[in-house]
Amino acid sequence: MSNISATNIINLREFRENVQAYADKVEDGASFIVMKQSKPLFKIISPWESFDFTDNARRYNGKRGIPVNRAIELLEKSLQEN
Predict the structure, then answer these.
(1) 44 assigned to some structural domain
(2) For the chain, what is the domain count?
(3) How many Å is the maximal CA-CA distance in the chain?
(4) Is residue 41, in this structure, part of any structural domain at all?
(5) Which of 15, 19, 56, 65 has the greatest number of CB atoms lying within 10 Å of its CB?
């Protein structure tokens, strides 16, 4: 079950205009999904919360990175686990 609420989802402009406030909240353990045009752009997590995209990227035949659809699947799975 996901612990992401509407307050954990922010738009890119809000993030850009209040970077320090969000950095402080992340330092205290919060995480946020930053959206752009109603689509998830990236997730901000504490450095003590782990999700290793590098490890997952190695599963794609040595290519650098992973397909965006797979990245979204992994993010959704991560959200469900938290």
Answers:
(1) yes
(2) 1
(3) 40
(4) yes
(5) 15
